[in-house]
Design brief:
- By secondary structure, the protein is an alpha/beta fold.
- Helix content is 27%, strand content 24%.
- The chain is built from 6 helices and 13 strands.
- The chain has helices at 33-44, 57-64, 84-96, 115-118, 190-198, 217-232; strands at residues 2-6, 27-28, 31-32, 48-53, 73-78, 101-105, 108-110, 132-137, 148-150, 156-158, 167-174, 202-206, 211-213.
- It has a 7-stranded mixed sheet. A two-stranded antiparallel ribbon has the order 2-3.
- The longest helix has 16 residues, at 217-232.
- It is globular.
- The protein starts with a strand and ends with a helix.
Length: 233
């Protein structure tokens, strides 16, 4: 199974750090964030990885290369300007192929075992089958109510207005059919998730382990401190 790491964003909330370094190359625990993903993907047996690039793209290419450092084959989907999540994935579909593929945000850190997703079965658009499988986590302080809830058999539903839900971790398994009828261009992911929920074709699971959304310099510093402390224990 192939995987895609989303790495094309401008990192506006991460400024000034992201003015000179793309977010996935910012360091925590002495290593670039993207290094943790590539290592975990290789360990899970995901040999081919697509990385979308735009902002400071050459730095990512120089660091990741062809993927030999991790025993991977890396291909790049270049975006002249960032296309957001759905737009970036849609453009990369020719590189990802017809089979379901794993997607992970380049600006998160987690201890989730990617092999769990590689073992999931999606039908790539068969009637009434799941078009995507999302990993959900507890809500971070900056997003206390969450977005979704998990129902029976892993069905993903909208969070009721009077309830606390879960947050999408930025880790998921997708079929190419999930992006059917999406025109090329800039497009966020949320409208596609909403459409799949409306059709009862979105599934998910809960991850109780560690997860960090590295959106600001303060959150990066917090993760760095925790990883360094863990290395010392």
């Amino acid at each position: 199974m192939k995987a895609m790491i989303l790495a094309a964003g401008l990192g506006e909330r991460m400024r000034p750090l992201s003015d000179h370094t793309p977010k996935p190359l910012l360091r925590a625990g002495g290593r670039p964030l993207i290094d943790y993903h590539l290592e975990r993907l290789a360990r899970a047996g995901c040999a081919e990885v697509v990385i979308n690039i735009s902002h400071l793209a050459e730095q990512l290419i120089d660091y990741c290369g062809e993927g030999t450092k991790w025993g991977l084959q890396i291909a790049y989907s270049r975006e002249p300007a960032p296309l957001e999540t759905a737009g970036g994935i849609q453009q990369a579909l020719p590189l990802l192929g017809a089979d379901p593929f794993l997607v992970v945000n380049g600006d998160i850190w987690c201890d989730f075992d990617f092999e769990q997703l590689l073992e999931r079965s999606l039908d790539n658009g068969a009637d009434n089958g799941a078009l995507a499988w999302l990993v959900m986590v507890d809500n971070p302080p900056q997003h206390p109510l969450g977005d979704f809830v998990l129902q029976e058999r892993g069905s993903v539903a909208f969070r009721p207005a009077d309830a606390v839900g879960l947050t999408y971790a930025g880790i998921g398994l997708y079929t190419s059919a999930f992006f059917d009828h999406l025109a090329p261009g800039k497009m966020p992911l949320r409208p596609l998730l909403d459409r799949a929920i409306g059709a009862n074709r979105l599934r998910g699971e809960y991850h109780a382990g560690q997860w960090f959304d590295i959106g600001t310099p303060e959150r990066l510093a917090l993760l760095d401190a925790r990883l360094r402390a863990a290395d010392q224990n």
